[in-house]
Design goal:
2 domains; six-stranded antiparallel beta sheet; 276 residues; Jelly Rolls; 10 strands; Arc Repressor Mutant, subunit A; single chain
């Protein structure tokens, strides 16, 4: 049975707040707390789907390897999120790898308890459907961005979303509250490490962002939002002030292949909803 620490954490999570004490006790039957050190995987892509989870604390990264062998960061799991919902998706294997980016604690239920879990607690079933619906909506939005936005826009929007979901006030602005590398951002936006490094260096010189190797702080979210609108208004870069040394170079064919692989990865977990 979960420890008192887990029970106390559950009461602070939105997903469990609607439950009475008796309902919460019932929902915890069969659940086991598990602790993941940074870098440890809750499960791996292609593994047999044996459990479903709720993250209590920490942060997890969801990543996929595409058919072309490219790694794509699909999303991050925040405290209170359900994940590993392969049973709800009618899949026998996990479609992605979920790995801790810092020490994390989650609750794990055996997969065979899923029907009882949602049947006895309709509120939790509704939460699961809401979670999957939100993932589908997010996937469609990101695929649209991969198809229509310039790389600068995609990176800017990604940083703004990360700050919205995991922002933490600091002395210099709003920081992303977990370690994230430039490679992670490249894999989220379907571009290259070189391009992300160039953009962040540019924005740092302009006072928009700050940070170190695994730490990003937005000093001016409003300025970063203007980068998105400026890029939309000037697709030929003639009126864009975001590049100190002229317009960015055209992305090479490998980057285009990365974008297509990213689009497939974003859809692979969620396309089943459209068929349901």
């Amino acid at each position: 049975m979960p420890s008192p620490l887990c029970h106390a954490l559950l009461r602070n999570l939105e997903i469990f707040k609607p439950l009475s004490d008796a309902q919460l006790k019932s929902a915890l039957r069969g659940a086991q707390p598990c602790r993941l050190v940074a870098g440890a995987a809750a499960y791996r892509q292609g593994g047999i789907a044996s459990h479903f989870f709720v993250l209590l604390s920490g942060r997890l990264k969801v990543a996929q390897i595409t058919a072309d062998g490219e790694q794509v960061v699909v999303r991050y799991v925040n405290p209170g999120d359900m994940f590993g919902l392969a049973r709800a998706m009618r899949q026998s294997r996990y479609p992605a790898t979920v790995q801790a980016v810092l020490e994390s604690v989650c609750l794990a239920w055996p997969d065979e308890l899923w029907e009882r879990f949602v049947g006895n607690h309709p509120q939790l079933g509704a939460m699961a459907l809401q979670t999957m619906g939100q993932r589908l909506q997010d996937a469609h939005l990101r695929i649209q961005e991969l198809s229509t936005d310039e790389v600068e826009q995609r990176v800017a929007r990604t940083l703004l979303r990360l700050v919205e979901s995991a922002g933490q006030p600091t002395a210099g602005g709003i920081g992303i509250s977990f370690p994230i590398t430039r490679q992670d951002i490249a894999e989220m936006t379907g571009t290259t490490l070189h391009t992300v490094s160039r953009l962040l260096s540019d924005w740092r010189q302009r006072g928009i962002v700050d940070g170190s190797r695994k730490r990003i702080v937005l000093r001016s979210p409003a300025a970063l939002a203007r980068v998105c609108s400026d890029a939309q208004a000037a697709p030929d870069c003639s009126g864009c002030t975001s590049c100190l040394d002229g317009p960015p170079p055209a992305e090479p064919p490998p980057a285009q292949r990365r974008r297509m692989g990213a689009a497939r990865a974003f859809l692979s977990e969620d396309a089943y909803l459209e068929r349901a």
